[in-house]
Every structure is written in structure tokens, then in C-alpha cells.
Amino acid sequence: MNSDLFDIEEELKKLPAKPGVYIMHDEDDNIIYVGKAVILKNRVRSYFRSSTKKTVKISQMVKHIAWFEYVVTDSELEALVLENNLIKENQPKYNTMLKDDKTYPYIKVTVADDFPRIVMTRKVIKDNAKYFGPFTSSEAVKETIELLRRLYRIRTCRINIDVSDEKARGERKCLYYHMGQCLAPCDGLTGKEEYGKNVDAVLDFLNGNHKQVVMELTEKMQQASDEMDYEHAMLYRDLIDSIRKVSEKQKITDTAGENRDVIAIARAQDSVIVQMFFIRGGKITGREHYYMKHDVEETTEDILSAFLMQFYMGAPYIPKEILLPCVPSGAELIEEWMCTQNGSKVALIVPQKGMKEKLVALAEENAKIKLDRDLEKIKRNREKTKGAVEEIESILNLPDIHRMEAYDISNISGFESVGSMVVYEEGKPKPNEYRKFKIKSVQGPDDYASMKEVLTRRFEHGLSEREDDMPGKFSKFPDLILMDGGRGQVNVCEEVLNSLRLDIPVCGMVKDDNHRTRGLYYKNVELPISRSSEGFHLITRIQDEAHRFAITFHRKLRGKQQVHSVLDDIAGIGPKRRKALMKSFESLDQIRGATVEQLREVEGFNLAAAQSVYDHFHK
Predict the structure, then answer these.
(1) Which end of the chain is more exposed for a tag (fewer CB within 10 A), N or C?
(2) Sequence-ordered list of residues with C-beta below 8 angstroms from that of 72, at least 6 positions apart, any chain
């Protein structure tokens, strides 16, 4: 939407007195905040009233609102769900956000099958299978599944077993059967009843009953040893050791055998860590910590509320109890949503005494330990990124540098000249927003002319996207442009910007005689920068990254050109077949090593063409 045509005061008058979700946009059409309201009219208007007390974050956010939109819902619960979906999808700058987006492994037993399998999965669906988890370590899950397959000889294959198919008998059993790791139900060597007993034992094991299995294996080990069958005795011993390792990873927490999640929060300065324990069947099956992006003025109750919604939205499983350190904001609404999501009652509990209270305290202690360890690391990372940007802001006397773009040209004597654009936001690289340019209008090694073409194409494309109100890969403009060089490159950039009537600061990254960064060229003055500062290190990283990205692209084009020139010499291979070869094989070496049969599989190739290519490389 064109924000110039949006009259905020007029639109505020149109707001309905209904529940819903409101979406705030900045002048670049980015979604910067999403919120829910019981009454949209009252909530959205409050942002623009000078009498309303606001946090620093909200005050800052309001300054950047260019326009807003809203969605009316039937209830506050619907608004809660829609709000969370929009937050997760758009990652608004001013919302409290769960930084981690992890999926956890589960052990799945396909009990609905005639001959069930045991597999690892990261999705829990309603398919009548039994799920165990979540676990935080996929390696531990794989070890457990491997152990159970060895113990109970459960099949690994996906074939559809038809025990009535007599023709397949004697032909299906695979290597796992001969290794003693499968009962071969596919070959009719075991029936549903016998196989089912082993599956029941698997389920019993996954429910935590390890003692009985260890006792049975110990007896077998002793018997094999008495009979001097030491090979089998060692096998049983190894299985017992594996079971003990799996058991040790599951700490007993209570005797009730309940499923619950335990959540605690640790805060310090502007950092928040949420610690979770996953308890399944009375055992801690895993623990994990999460970082939250938040406002320092927000309450722990608000942060906890945001975490619960974002973590459990789309989660494959919600336990019946979630133990918490305090009552989250909107607890009743969150409980109602969880019950509808889970299909059964979910309770948010703040325990005051007993084992449950100790579990929350334990989680809180772990969260504090993790936060203490990370604070120094967080501080160092901030100094390298945002802190470094602030240094550059200070040197250039420029406020609010969020996005920086750097450009470089690469060629060898003018051959296949290319340009690169790298992007850094808040001092961090954004590789998905890097762009490459193949120089079209310049012949020979003219870096200035090549740079002029790159910058012109980049910003003309961006202006076109903005004019069409269609955000694309060039529509976001930088707060600062960094040029790989001094006065000359800066002048080229400023010439392009002036011709397009764009006002963007341009700074040159000046190098010394040893090709090392020595300072910044800005507004016709070379500004010194301390080589020990984080700002200097960031400038160097950006400069090196622009250079690396350009050279990588140039090498790729050179490689293709070399392949193309070699293929020119092959009889019977014209432009279309050359293109098909280069599309089918990644390198000249792969084409050289291909057989006639492999070459015939290339689109447009007959036997004669394939033979011609093969003969060319094997004369």
C-alpha cells in the first residue's frame, strides 16, 4: 500500500468495536508489529493517544507506523491464534519472539500395521501409531531404535506384507534376517501373534520397564557363558550395556508416571532464556533452552505468555500438565486454546510445594546457569555486530544504520566481468539477500564503468519495484553503501544515486599499499579507524565478503566458459547439445568420465552423439 494515501486519523475512526488482530506496517511496507484485541477500536487507538503510557519499545514502534490493517474475528480465542500465526510467519521487529524454531524427534511404533515398525519421526499425526518423546537428541533416539531392533528383531523395511502370497515365500528375507536382526514376517517365518508379543515388549521397554529385559538378558548371558558359547555371551553383555546407557539418559523424577513439561525463565539485562524439561512417563526424556527477543520493560508474565503460544502452536503434542514459575498473561485464554489444540484438558500449574515445585526450581537453576555462561558470549557477539555498527555510526556521524550494502567488481583483464552486492543487517551478513551481476555494457577492464552499471541496475530495479508497490529482491534500500575503494568508487556511486534522485550515504573502504583496510572515505575526507576496534573488524569482514562473493561468481562463469570452449571442438555437438551437457553434468571432469550409456541419457543425444563425445575424450 502507498502509505502517503493512508490517513491514520481517518482510519482510526473506522475501527470496529469487535475482537480481532491488527497489523502495523512501516513506510517500506514491512510488518513491524502484530497484536490482538478484545475491542479493536480501543486497542489500536491507544497507540496514537499521547495520554497513553507506553514502553520505550512501543513508543519507538509507533514512530515507524506508516499504515495499519486489521482482521476481525469471532472471538478473542480466534484472535489469539491468528496473532500467533502472523507473528511466526512475519517475524515482526517489535514483537516478543521465540528465536529458536526447533523440531524434536519422537519414536514411533506403527501399531496399526499387521507387522509394526519402529521409526524416528519429527511429526506426530493422528494415524493410530504410538509415539514416545519428544527427545532432544536424535542420536539417542537412533541408538534406542537400533537397540530395540536388535533386541526384538523388529523389521526395518517398508514393504506391504501379504502373508497369503505363497509365491513370495523363500524370496523376500533380507540380510537383517541372516544377521539375526529380523523375524522375517515378509517371508512367513513368523506370525502376527508371535511378532505382536515382541512389539508389546518394545512398547513395555519404551514405557520405561527396562529391569525385566536386563534380567532376561543376564540369564541368557550366564547360560551362554556356562555352555562356553562366549560369542553369544558377549552379544548379550553388549545389549545389557546398551540398555543401561539408554536408561541413564532418562532421570527418574516422580513415581506417578505422568507426562508434563516444566518451564522456567532466567533474565538479565536484555537477555532472556527459557529452560524446558520434557517429562514422559515420569522420566526426563530431554531438556532444552530457548532465547527470546523481547523488550526489557516487558514483564516475565508477558514473555512467558508469548513463549507458550509460539512454542506450542503447531506442536505435535501438548502434555496434560505444564509446570510454570508464574501465571502467564492471559492464562485462561491460553489454557482454552491448548485444550482445543490437544483435544483434552491441559492445565497450566504454578506449583507451591513438593516435587513439582522442586522441578520448576531445578529448571530455573539450569536457566540461570545457562544465562550466566552465555552473557559474556552474548556481549562479545553484540560488540562484533551491533556494537561495531554503532562505532561506524559514531565515526560517520550517521544515526540508525540498520542495513549496509557493499559492492565489488571481479574480472581478469576484462574477461567475464561480474559485480557483487553483499548485505549486512545489524552487523550480520544476510546471504539470502546477496545479489550477483554479469556485466553487460562494458568491454574490457573498466571497474568504474562496470560499477556504474551494477549500481544503476540495482537501484533502477529497486525503484521500479517500489513504484509498482510490489516488494521484491531489490525494493529494500540500504542506510549506508560501502564501496571497495576510495574517492573514485565513491564518486561513481554518488553519481548514480544523484541521477536517480536517491539520498543514501556512501562510504569508501580505503586500503593501504598492502591491500589492507586503513580507513573510511566519507564526504571527501578520509577518516581514520582504529585497527583494534570492532568497527574496523566489521568493515574488513564486509570488504572481504564482497570480494569473495564476486570472485566465486567469476570463477563459476570462467569454469563454464572453459567447459563450453572444450565442447566446441567435439564433432556433431552443436549449441543445444552443449547446453544439455552442461546442464546434465556439473563439470568437465564428469563429462570426461561419463560412459556412452550415461551420455545417451542426456536430452537430445542419440548413440552417435554420445559416441562422439566419448571418443573425443578417449582417443
Answers:
(1) C
(2) 16, 18, 19, 20, 40
Where does the pLDDT of residue 429 fall: very low under 50, low under 70, confident under 90, or very high at 90 and above? Answer: very high
Q: Report pLDDT digits (tens) over 126-183.
A: 778 888 766 666 777 787 788 788 778 888 787 777 666 555 555 566 777 777 778 8
Query: pLDDT digit string (tens) for 228-240?
Result: 887 778 877 877 7
Q: Are residues 46 and 138 in the same domain?
A: no
Q: Is the peptide bond before 134 cis (omega within 30 degrees of 0)?
A: yes
Burial of 481 per CB tally in 10 Å (0-12, 13-18, 19+)? buried
> Which DSSP string do the residues of 482-499 spell out, in sequence order?
EESSSHHHHHHHHHHHHH
Residue 51 domain-assigned? yes
Spatial distance between the Cα atoms of 240 and 96, rounded to a whole number of angstroms: 47
Cα–Cα dist 394/534, whole Å: 13
The CA distance from 49 to 129, in Å, is 54
| Final residue in a domain of this structure, among 60, 95, 130 | 95
Which domain, by its residues, includes 34? 3-95
Are residues 520 and 468 part of one domain? yes
| Predicted local distance difference test score (pLDDT) of residue 554 | 56
Q: What per-residue confidence (pLDDT) applies to 256?
A: 52
Q: Choose one of 349, 382, 415: the last residue of a domain.
A: 382
104 with 110: CB under 8 angstroms?
A: no
| 54: three-class secondary structure by DSSP | coil
CB 182 within 8 A of CB 154: yes
Residues 324, 263 contacting (CB under 8 angstroms): yes
Q: Output the domain CATH number for residue 67.
A: 3.40.1440.10
Q: What percent of the chain has pLDDT over 90?
A: 17
Exposed, middle or buried by CB within 10 Å (0-12, 13-18, 19+), for 54?
Answer: middle
- The Cα 481–Cα 459 span in angstroms is 12
Burial of 168 (0-12, 13-18, 19+ CB in 10 A): middle
What are the DSSP calls for 587-606, one per residue?
Answer: SHHHHHH--HHHHHTSTT--
CATH assignment at residue 587: 1.10.150.20
Judge if 400 and 546 occupy the same domain. yes
pLDDT-wise least confident of 201-210, 231-240, 246-255, 373-382 = 246-255
* Domain shared by 341 and 267, yes or no: yes
- The answer as to whether 57 is a domain residue is yes
Claim to verify: residue 166 and residue 199 sit in the same structural domain: yes
Quick count: other Cβ atoms within 10 Å of Cβ 608? Answer: 10
Task: Report the number of distinct structural domains present in the chain.
Answer: 5
Cα separation, 39 vs 562, in Å, equals 66
Q: Are residues 307 and 413 in the same domain?
A: no
Residues 361 and 272 in one domain: yes
Coil, strand or helix: which one is 563?
Answer: helix
**What is the reported pTM?**
0.47
